[in-house]
């Protein structure tokens, strides 16, 4: 329909301006304030679940990060070096030669670091998660690292195993998922135990 006069144009422009103002108030002010209000009582759960040591944020409970050195439990490999801005899988298929070579190299490195046969290296020690940001490892991978971390920290192996058990999260509702260990929280606990 064509606009027939200047008054029609002014009327339609005013209607569009009203819609813009109303939607700006609803979506730009009311909705964010409502989300903030609902999230406020959740505390750190709504703020990325930061992990603090001596009042300093050392990471997030929800995001994986790299730990270098024999004194730390190591995380899963990450295609993007745990870069939260570039989280993505490699998109290489299970028969891709580059992926198979990378997995074989990782398996060899982990086996040498932990002084175990390559056959004993669990899958999550050599494969990255879909996002590359998984903060968890399997209890099997954590157990594989216990002796090395205990030796490097001067702790009893039984004490380190106890810390792993304490930081193992069970299946959700007892049926969903697999038991996992949050690497950051475990490393914080091991660091405190070795002080």
TrEMBL record:
It holds the Pfam family KdpC. The chain crosses the membrane at residues 15-39. Keywords: ATP-binding, Cell membrane, Ion transport, Membrane, Nucleotide-binding, Potassium, Potassium transport, Transmembrane, Transmembrane helix, Transport. Its main location: membrane. It is found in: Cell membrane. The keyword Nucleotide-binding applies. One of its GO terms (molecular function) is ATP binding. It is a single-pass membrane protein. The keyword Acetylation does not apply. It comes from the Bacteria. One of its GO terms (cellular component) is plasma membrane. HAMAP family: KdpC. PANTHER family: POTASSIUM-TRANSPORTING ATPASE C CHAIN, POTASSIUM-TRANSPORTING ATPASE KDPC SUBUNIT. The system is composed of three essential subunits: KdpA, KdpB and KdpC. Part of the high-affinity ATP-driven potassium transport (or Kdp) system, which catalyzes the hydrolysis of ATP coupled with the electrogenic transport of potassium into the cytoplasm. This subunit acts as a catalytic chaperone that increases the ATP-binding affinity of the ATP-hydrolyzing subunit KdpB by the formation of a transient KdpB/KdpC/ATP ternary complex. Belongs to the KdpC family. This is Potassium-transporting ATPase KdpC subunit.
């Amino acid at each position: 329909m064509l606009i027939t006069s200047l008054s029609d144009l002014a009327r339609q422009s005013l209607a569009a301006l009203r819609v813009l103002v109303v939607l700006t108030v609803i979506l730009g002010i009311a909705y964010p304030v409502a989300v903030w209000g609902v999230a406020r009582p959740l505390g750190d759960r709504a703020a990325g679940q930061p992990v603090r040591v001596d009042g300093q944020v050392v990471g997030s409970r929800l995001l994986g990060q790299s730990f270098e050195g024999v004194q730390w439990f190591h995380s899963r490999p990450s295609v993007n070096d745990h870069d939260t801005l570039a989280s993505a899988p490699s998109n290489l298929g299970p028969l891709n030669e580059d992926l198979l070579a990378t997995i074989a190299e990782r398996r060899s490195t982990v086996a040498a670091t932990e002084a175990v046969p390559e056959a004993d290296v669990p899958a999550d020690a050599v494969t990255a998660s879909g996002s590359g940001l998984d903060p968890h490892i399997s209890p099997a991978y954590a157990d594989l690292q216990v002796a090395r971390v205990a030796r490097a920290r001067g702790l009893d192996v039984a004490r380190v195993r106890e810390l792993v058990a304490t930081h193992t999260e069970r299946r959700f509702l007892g049926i969903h998922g697999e038991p996992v260990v949050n690497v950051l929280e475990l490393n914080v606990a091991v660091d405190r135990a070795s002080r």
